[in-house]
User: Fold these one by one.
Assistant:
Number 1:
Amino acid sequence: MSIRKDWDTYFMDIAYMASTRSQCSRRHVGAVLVQGKKLLGSAYNGAPMGVADCGEAGCMIVEEFEARVVDGKEELVRKQRCIRTIHAEQNLILFTDRKDREGSTVYVTDEPCWTCANMLANSGVKEIVYHRPYPKDTAKVAKLLQERGLVFRSLEAYEPPGGCVEPVQN
Ligand SMILES: [Zn+2]
Ligand SMILES: [Zn+2]
């Protein structure tokens, strides 16, 4: 009996492997660029090269208010976020060629934030596949990507490889 992994699982596993390189204690995100069945790049969230990362310098925390609907009423919730890192999707764009991205698929461990989705929408990528949801931006991200004509889907039944998953703090 074969237990061969399907392509979605295969590439998402590689994205999770990439995420283990991240030093940000708040969130480990990995992303890979795939053209056809070919892997053309991988990236994770981190500080620019040669600059102290969260592992050495600690996270750079900012507080923001986030609008959230609770029992039909909009409330402002205080949230903390680390802004030291370049997001995995942004690093992936920085380290791949435009011509490789045209018509490609990005597998990313976490649903892209608004800024990353905006950049991916203009990057030549035609499909984004993610695993863990990021509810804060999901409505506007889905609308944007639909408007732009990208395929946007999540792997709901997917299970990450053991040892790859850090607790995520939203
Ligand atoms: Zn951090
Ligand atoms: Zn992002």
Note: The CA atoms of residues 35 and 104 lie 5 Å apart.
Number 2:
Amino acid sequence: MAEGGAMPEDGARREGMEVAQRSEGARGAGMERMEVARGAGMEVAQRPGADRGEPGLRVLVNARLATLAGGDGPRRGRAMRDVGLVEDGVVVIRGESIAFAGPRAEAERLGWLAGGRRLRDAAAAGMAGGGAAADGEGGEGSGPGGIDILDVGGRLVTPGLVDPHTHLVHAGSREDELAQKLAGVPYLQILRRGGGILSTVRATRAASEEELVAKARRTLARMLEHGTTTVEAKSGYGLDAETELKQLRVMRRLNEVQPVEVVPTFLGPHAVPPEYRDRTGAFLDEMVAVAARARAEGLAEFADIFCEAGVFSVEESRRFLSACRRLGLGVKIHADEIHPLGGAELAAELGAVTVDHAVASTRDGLRRCADAGVIAVLLPGTTWNLGHARHADARFLMDEAGAAVALATDYNPGSCPCESLQLVMAFAANLLRMTPEEILCAVTRNAAYAAGRGRTVGRLEPGWQADVVVWDTDSLAYIPYHFGVNHVHMVFKRGRQVVIRRTGEEGRA
Ligand SMILES: [Zn+2]
């Protein structure tokens, strides 16, 4: 995949520190400071937890907002087209949260703009931002007491993207399987030959916790550069107690050392390991025991299974997921990715939070999911990468079943080695025939609910976490239209500016 901007490769970002230290003066404030970063040739001034001071008060002005705000729950069917567009909008970030997101006139009335009452109050309360205020280019002037007022130049501003289905933590890569794929060997046949998932299992079992943390950090840094601020992550490359719990501990560690929030899912039954060949029942008993340990240690929020022909049957999936639900875990299911086994029907029956893939599902199964409030997590990067002719029927899900649809990368070393939700947004337009508005809803608000974070992220609304992306375009359609490059201009996570990219006229062509 072509990426935008030749960024310093992992060398600079591996530790993060180098970039962070050199660009200390470049972070934390507005345009003027960004020029410092540009002058230094810095493509990305990004480091987990970038500006180190406590996040204060930031006011983004001259923004074209898509707030996704209002009401409760994921948006379903046609309601997904309402992204809450606000022309000439303002976002106020106070500490880690959104304090205001709406039209400039309302912000003015409420005292959030220069000279306004709320800014004076915040200044008096010591809510100053990361340093001296920038002189807003749009005549905003500085807020009192060093409050950052940032003129974003009419750019599109959205919630941080949420990736609700990834296989983040693993060792190794599988480019050696590309030749087999191109020769027409089916994905499930590579798995049967001991390749595919099982090859990553061998590498992940052999890797240390530190190695897995280091690799996943690099992945998360790349996701963050592309606008993703929250990810759901699955275990499933251990298939034994020790390695599965190791993967889940790595996720917990990741939440301590870098800014992207990782939501942990236990996917022990991702494949049947060789040592349990023809003893699937015994393997699932073992995995239920691991799920209980993961739950008891607070290492997992969801349980998941690969329900597929030749992997786990519907009956086996029902048994495993029911047991996990009794343990108090939320339920997800890899359903009908390749064959129409009845995974969607099972997701509806169990009241799963999500039904994932759902490419070959029956229409009846999809309808039942919609009726049961199960969110369909669609993964068009995977069907594209596997060269499949059939993609999930997003139009049926939204137009006829009235389902809530979310989109995810499925980031994994086999069927979709790609961190960019932006590329998935392009696939959603071209392969799933989704509109730009539906796509945005599917990678923000709906994705947040799919990851169990609908009450904290996924929208620009007072009280929600200040996860914000400033795009280098004023057009929502431009993102899926101009594919294969990175359109992110800035990213804020929990109120902290964590990404600044050097963008300019070339990005807005
Ligand atoms: Zn998956």
Note: The longest strand covers residues 57-66.
